[in-house]
Amino acid sequence: MEKGAIRQGSYTSKRKGKEIVKKERSTKEIWKNNWYGIRTAYSFSKSRVICAILRQITDYFLWVFYTAYFVRFVIETIQNQSPLEEILMNIGIIGGVSLLLNGFVHLCDTVIFPLADTKIYGRMYRRIYEKAENVELGCFENPEFYNQFSIALDGIGDKLGANVDYVAEIIGGTVGGVLACLAMIEIDPWTILFLIAPLAGNFIFAPKMNAINYRRYRDGVPYDRRISYVNRVMYLGKYAKEMRLYHIFNVIRRIFDDATKAKSNVYRKYYGKAMFYGILQYIFSYVIIFEGILLYGAYRALVAAGKPISFSQMAVLTTVMVTASWVWVRVIRAYNSCSENGLVVAELRSFLEYEEKIPENQDGRMPEPVVHSIEFRDVSFTYDHKHMIIDHMSFTIREGEKVALVGHNGAGKSTIIKLLLRLYDPTEGCILVNGVDIREYHLQEYRKLFLCAFQDYQIFAGTVKENVLMGREGTDEEVIQALRKAGIYEKIASLPNGIHTMLTREFTDDGAVLSGGEFQKIVCSRVFMDETRVALFDEPSSALDPISENELFNSIIHSVEGKTGIFISHRLSSVREADYVLMLEEGHIIEQGTHEELMRAEGTYAAMYKVQERNYFALDEEVAG
């Protein structure tokens, strides 16, 4: 793979065609994002949203009723010396209704919400995964995309449920708060003034705290990614050998230490302001209101002129004021939490509404089932608008031709394959397949014209058969034949379950762990599954010894007989049977022709071939014999 060959453009969050600048969101924008979160959760589970609101209204109603109205009812019935039967009957009715309402709250908490949250979690992550699959490959090389992707993945399934709960608590708490305020006004209208302090504390200082917390969270995301990387390296077995043979642990530890130190610096950066606003919020939200309530109640009972309140009224008033204060504090706290959560939902929304440059679900013209020609017409490609990886390149491949791309690392070989597969679009020029610009084709149907084996292959935690088919349909016999062509079936047949053996030990202790060369042959067998498509081999034998590589390339040449094949190899002895060779250097075609023609020209290709021939002369002799 050429260095820098898999970068293109930059990831930019967009909504409705406009770039979203990363800055503090306005209150209106925050609530738009929260409403987006609610609508998203509602689309996944209507019962979760509706029951959350009813549950909070019920919970706050019971709280206010018992602390404000029920206490007052009990005191007044005792003072009025009501009949015992009447008292017991009223208490029984109240207790029965309360039991039913509490049963609903318990049902929500233990049954409805866990089931609905699991549903929301699964569907939300499925949508995120689908979006991640649909964005262009260049996004995965952009740190900003990864930061936003990390935020989107960071427990967003749970955050959507929390977002619903916050909004429901605001609604339910407002209902409870109004009831509590009515009870306060009925006893003493002036007590309503005590609610100003917590309102000021939470509306003025809490939003500043939320902004600080969000900036601190976002600034820490890049370092969280580094810490997660270290955790992954220390956890996965594929890194274990190098960790023990070399001193790479010191490098990994340094990455971890630097990340944790940087994250600590992020916290220190905001510590002073967070402490200042936190203390102010605490004083206004708790100290003034609760101390003030007790002082005012004592003043009305002991000092106030006119009509003082009784100690029973003081008890009721104090209880009601405390309840009202706590209700509104919780409402404001839910509001602030909702505002803070809305900032995270904004990142999710930006991620999900990002407009892909090469969407995987792009519709378009249906391609012919057979590729008659492939043409690169004055194609240039760059990822940084400075260094051209491909520089005004033109060539044509006809149906049935076997073409080899050769050259030093960084010459542009792998980039040609990626451009042909439309993993990226050219910066300039165009690529034509059957005379049609490939950007006009239905993308997924277009890619079905090709079968690929990359040097940077991946083996998935599945069976051998699944790793060969890669989601396609195929019989056991077809898989076996593909493995035979790749020269790996004898090894697979020796495994306990043959082609149904699990590869890797990601999920099972008895999974098969093969050598790099054996895994590479399984990757090549993916291409051998279909004889009708264009075959693309990008360094398919980099992990093989020269003899095994020669055998594999003979199989490749035989498998593409009569159909179009493009393959890349750094060992030039493997490309001698190609119909045509393109010699690349710094994004240009410097030589082209058959192997014999290029050898007679005695240029760069011939010089490179002779150097390799001397290095592998003995092995080539053995293969020839």
Q: Which key terms come to mind for this protein?
A:
single chain, 625 residues, alpha/beta, 6-stranded mixed sheet, 4-stranded antiparallel sheet, 12 strands, elongated, disordered N terminus
Q: Would you spell out the secondary-structure blueprint of this structure?
A:
Elements: E1 14-15, E2 18-19, H1 27-44, H2 46-79, H3 84-134, H4 143-153, H5 156-187, H6 196-235, H7 240-245, H8 248-302, H9 311-352, E3 373-381, E4 390-398, E5 402-407, H10 413-420, E6 428-433, E7 436-437, H11 443-447, E8 450-453, H12 464-469, H13 476-485, H14 489-493, H15 516-527, E9 534-538, H16 546-559, E10 565-568, E11 580-585, E12 588-593, H17 595-601, H18 604-615, H19 617-624
Parallel strand pairs: 5-10, 5-11, 8-9, 9-10
Antiparallel strand pairs: 1-2, 3-4, 3-6, 6-7, 11-12
Description:
The structure is a single chain. The protein has 625 residues and is an alpha/beta fold. The protein is built from 19 helices and 12 strands. The strands form 3 sheets. A 6-stranded mixed sheet has the order 8-9-10-5-11-12, with helices on both faces. The two termini are 33 Å apart. 35% of the residues are buried.
